[in-house]
Each structure stands twice: as C-alpha cells, then as structure tokens.
Amino acid sequence: MTSLRVQIPDPQMSGLPLPVTAFVAATNAFDADALVGCFAPGALVNDQLRDFWGADAIRTWAEREIVGVKMTMQVVKVVEHFGEVILTANVDGEFDKTGLPGVLTLTFHFSTRADGVVRLIILNNRPRDSLPEIRTLRSAVAEGRPPDAAPQE
Fold it and tell me: H-type helices in 10-144, by residue range?
C-alpha cells in the first residue's frame, strides 16, 4: 500500500480501517497513486453498477472519475456493519451536475482486509419514500405507462 499520511479531522472517522481513511484522504488530495494504493491486488470497485477489477482498471477509474474531476468527499455518516464500513459522503467536483441534486450524497460500501480495500461499492441511495429514479420515469413515459407500473416486456 502506498504510504499516505492520513489526517482524520472528523471524529467519526477515527478507529476505521486505515484503507478507508486513506481512501478519503487520497480522494480529497486528488492523488491517483495513493488511491490505487488503498486497494488490495485483484480488488473490485463497483461505481454506479459499473465494475472495475484489478489495479489497472481501478487506476483508470480513479484518474478519470475522481482525480480528473477533482472530486471531494465530505463524510456525513459512518456505520460499521458486520465487519464492513458504510460511509456516506457529500461529494462535489468539476463534473457534469445536470440532473443531479443540489447536494450529491453517495454511499461507499467498503470491504477491507489486511492488505487494503478488496471491494468498494458506490451507490447513489435515495430515501425509501422518494420518487422513482429519473431513468425509470423516462422509460415509463416512453412506454406510455404510469411510473410505478412494471416495465413492459
């Protein structure tokens, strides 16, 4: 793992596995080498239902979708659940925000082992009672059905 000095200004981040705190620090520092260094060999990143397996794919993803757009994370909630870390953060950066909420909040599901993050799943969760996702609405309109009806097969 790449050496990275991790500053933990947020008390809810203390006590978390080093690869998780290092990921947040490397993201906010726009440091692709440190980001890739957070992951174990053969790790998986699933970002919004897209898989990136292994160091080369993770590096390409990190350079394009984190460092390239100067993404930052402001941690708002951390939950340790059955040995995994679920981190919720407000993210910002120089990416296209068309159709996104004013504050984009993503949930990062980390699975770690001694040698780093082995799996990271990033989701844009919505509250249970929220309206259907925009792609669902567009699909319903295109098919001429109510948004809460099942898609036609």
Answer: 18-28, 32-37, 54-62, 134-143
